[in-house]
Amino acid sequence: MKIALVVYQFIREKGGVESYVFNLSGHLLNQGHEVHIFAHKFTQDQDKRLLLHPVPAVSFWSPLKYWSFALNAPKIIKKAGIKFDIVHGFTQTLFQDIYRVGGGCHWDYMMHTYPLMHSVFGKIIMCLNPRHMSILLLEKIIFKRKLYKQVTCISEQCKKEIIHHYKLPANDIEVVYNGVNTMVFTPQNRLKYRTAIRAKYNVAPDEILLLFVGSGFKRKGLKYVIDAFPLIDEDKKLKLLVVGKGKVRKYQKLAKDNGIADKIIFAGVYKNIQEIYAAGDIFVFPSEYDAFGTACLEAMASGLPVIASRASGVSEVITHGKDGFVINYPIDAKEIAHYINLLLEEGKRNQMGSAARQKSETYSFEANVEKTLRIYQKVININS
Fold first, then answer.
1. Three-state SS for 241?
2. Residue 373 has what pLDDT?
3. Does residue 96 sit in the same domain as residue 203?
């Protein structure tokens, strides 16, 4: 097949959708497909088999960035003069065969990210913000004018949001859960990295290490983890390692107010995140909102039991009480503490961690690509 992948930035290190497209392109190439990348920015270490097509965009102001890319990408695709079997869009544009929604509806994202959205006046202010107005309008145009042949979502939660806001037929949307590289994220990493990483962050061998991984500490629910700490069994030696970007000082103060400042370590961004999972014992992800939450799947593949929020799409792949725990929303620190206390027993941790690894193998990146290719064929059949 001749496949066009359309994304604003084709840069693996950016994470999220960028990392996903980078990995997808590699798998498609390895299966013998001809892959073209239409993007405004490119990584320096892309596969030489890829065919690159720069898309001009005005990048200095976000509303212009979104609209200029959305308008220019279809023009550059047409200008290429290639009859593509599939045009797969990962960034909002005004033409694609398949539109992948990787972050949920923008309205729901705003509702869970900005406190202002909880009042009518606040909603008006937020919707008049040029950035949010541009994204909401682009989203509406794509769905209302049906500028796609198929929509894919990364969770049922995401699918329900789209149907609720835009009244799309359910058949227009297929759920393709994110995949994880089960060769990179594996329990075997403990043998390689556990001792060194724990030593680096002054975590003793007999301490139970909780992990929190994610940028945007508020939406990811770091506050609830810190609030849960005083409610955990005091007889156990515990520490929390926080990895990602966020307002560190705010949460350092919260930890100090809870009397646990010495138990929390802020590591910032860590590039080879599989090493961090190898050092941990329990993964905690009480997000207020996440269309999916791939970090949970990475932790599961690494053999860690996870505690995730029902407000995260990843909760759909967790069997509560077997390979992880799903906490309710609104999030309660007492509920988090309850499940952490259950996992303080080593046998329980090991049992659930093993089950988590088995579950992650069902959601490998290979499985994700296989389903994506089935959808490609479905769209090709529609076109023919």
1. strand
2. 97
3. no
Amino acid at 55: V
Tally of structural domains, the chain: 2
301-353 pLDDT per residue, tens: 999 999 999 999 999 999 999 999 999 988 999 999 999 999 999 999 999 99
Query: What is the CATH classification number for the domain harbouring 159?
Result: 3.40.50.2000
Task: Find all residues with CB under 8 Å of 381, minimum gap 6, and list them.
Answer: none
> What's 80's DSSP letter?
T
Can you give the length of the chain in residues?
Answer: 384
Element (H, E) at 268: strand 264-268
The two structure tokens encoding residue 373: 């290719």
Assigned token pair, 383: 């076109």
Q: What is the pTM of this model?
A: 0.94
For 13-52, what is each residue's pLDDT tens digit?
877 899 899 999 999 999 999 999 999 999 877 888 999 9
Q: Could you tell me if 312 and 222 lie in one domain?
A: yes
Do 53 and 70 sit in the same domain of this protein? yes
Alpha-carbon span 352 to 358, nearest angstrom = 10
**In the chain, which stretches have pLDDT less than 70?**
none
Q: Is 184 contained in some domain?
A: no
Rounded-to-integer distance, Cα 7 and Cα 42, Å? 10
**Whole-number pLDDT of residue 16:** 84
Instruction: Give the whole-angstrom CA distance, residue 340 versus residue 225.
Output: 10
User: Long-range contacts: 62-68, Cβ < 8 Å, 24+?
Assistant: 62/130, 62/131, 62/134, 63/130, 63/131, 63/133, 63/134, 65/8, 66/92, 66/131, 66/134, 66/135, 66/138, 67/134, 67/138
For residues 107 and 123, what is the distance between their CA atoms, to the nearest angstrom?
10
Two tokens, residue 184: 């990179």
Tokens describing residue 62? 């976000």
- pLDDT, residue 46, reads 80
pLDDT of residue 367: 95
